[in-house]
User: What shape does this take?
Amino acid sequence: MAYLHTANIISDFPPSHHHHTSAGPFVQHQITPYTNNGGTILGITGEDFVVLAGDTRHSEGYSINSRTEKKVHRLGKESSLVLATVGFGADALDVVETMKRAVEDYKFHHNKEMSPPAAAQLLMTILYSNRFFPKYAYCILVGIHAGKGVLYSYDVVGSYSKSGERRAAAGAASDLIVPFLDNQVELKNQYVPYAWEEEIPVQPLPMEKVRRLVKDAFTSATERHIQVGDGLQIITVAASGVGWGVSEEMYELKKD
Amino acid sequence: MNHTPENWGRPRDDIYGFYDKSFLQNTGGAQQHTTRPVVTGTSVVALKYNGGVVMAADNLASYGSLARFTDIKRIKQVGDHTIVGAGGDISDMQYLFDKLLESVLIKEEYQNDGHALRAPHIYSYLARVLYNRRCKFNFLWNSILVAGYDDEKKPFLASADLLGTRFSSPALASGYGAQLAIPILRKIAPDEASVTKITKEQAIEAIKLCMKVLFYRDARSMNKYSLAVISEEGVDLTHGVALENESWKFAETVRGYGAQTV
Assistant: This one.
C-alpha cells in the first residue's frame, strides 16, 4: 500500500514524479475515498429456489488481501433473504450491515420476517439515499417469496427491476459470466437441432444444473480474470412447504 | 437558474457580494483535512499459530526520508488478550491508541459487568471509526492489524485501513510487508487449516525473518522493533527487540543499480 507513504491513492500510472518535486505549499494531492477489491458474484433462480454465489478472493491492485473473505451474507437467522455485494469492500460491508439491522428492526416492530419485495425496495432506498456520495457496492438480493425463488440486482445508486430477474452477475468478471448466462440460462442462440430456426424454449432449470452452471462460470472466470479465484461460496435458498431452507456449499477455486 | 447544487439555498454573490472569509484562520477559507501522512510508521506483520498470534512492527517514525523518532511503540495492548498494530501517520495512530482506545477501555471497565472486550469487538470498533472518518473525507491515515482471541477463544487476526477496508487472513502485513513479508508467511500458513500445525516458536521465527527482510529492503524501516506474542497466558509485548543475525553479505551480489561500474 504505497499510498501510506506518498498519498497517491489514485492511480499513479504511468508513474509521474510530481509528488516528489517541491512545487510549493499549495499542491493539492488527489485522494479518493474508494478502492476496488475485486471479486465477482452470481445469482440464478429456479422454480422454487434461488442460488447466490461469490468468490472469496479479496484483493487490491496486484495484492491478494485474503483468500477467504465471503461476499454472500444471510440477512437474518430466520429470514430467507440473502445479499451479495461486490465493488469497494468497505462500502459493500456497510450496505450489508445496514440491511441486516433493518431486517432485524422490522422483525422487532412487526413480529414477522421482511418480505423479499419489501427488502428489495428498502435496498434501493438505502443505495439511492447515498446518490451524491454513492456506496460503491453492486448488489444482488435473493429470497423466497410466495413459494418462488426471487432475485433482484442493483447498480451502485439503487436502480433495480421490481419484477426481479431470472439471473444476474456483478463485479470484476461479470463481463465474462453474463454472456455465458445469456446462453445457458436464457438459452439465447440455442436452436432445436435440425429444426429450421426453432428456438429452444426457456424453462426453469433444476437445482443441480444451476449449481453446475455456477461452478463452471466461476472456474472459467478464475482462468481468465486475475481478481477472481481462491474459493467459491454457494448459498442455495429453497422453498419447502410454507417455509424455506438455506444451505451453504464451499467449492475450491484455483489460487494462482 | 444556478445549476450547481452546492450553491442552492446560499446567498447569491451578485446580490450580497462575495462571502467574507477573512475571519477564518487558514488561508484556504475552508476546513482543511489531512491530505497526506506526515510522520509515518512502516509495515506491521502478523501471523497466527496453533493457540495464538505473533505480531511485529519496528520502532521507527519517519519524517519523509528522515528517520525522525527511533523509539516509537506502534503496537498497543488493549485489554488482557488483544493487541493493535498501526502503520501510516503516527499522530493519527496516537489519537487512535491514546485517546479513542483508552477511553473505550475505561468506559468498558466502569461497566463492571464481567464482560471484557475481545479482539473482534476492538477490531470492528476501529474499522468503523476508520470508515466513518473516510465517509467524512477526513481520513485517519493508518493501516491497522488487530490480533487476539475471538468469542470462541480461537486466534483472531484482521486488518483495516484508512478507507475502512476490512479483511482477515492467517497471515497479514501492511505497507511493504504486503509485498515482502506475505510471501514468506504464506509459505508456512497458506490457509486456516495449516495454522494448527504451526508452533509458537515457528511463528516467532517466521516473523523475525520477515522483520529482517523488511529491514534489508524497506528504506523507511529500522533494526529495532516491537514483538508481541499472544498465547493462552496473555500478551507478551516487548519493545526495542534488536534484529538478530544481520548480515549485508548478500548486498555485494546485488547487480543492476547502485554504485557498481560493472
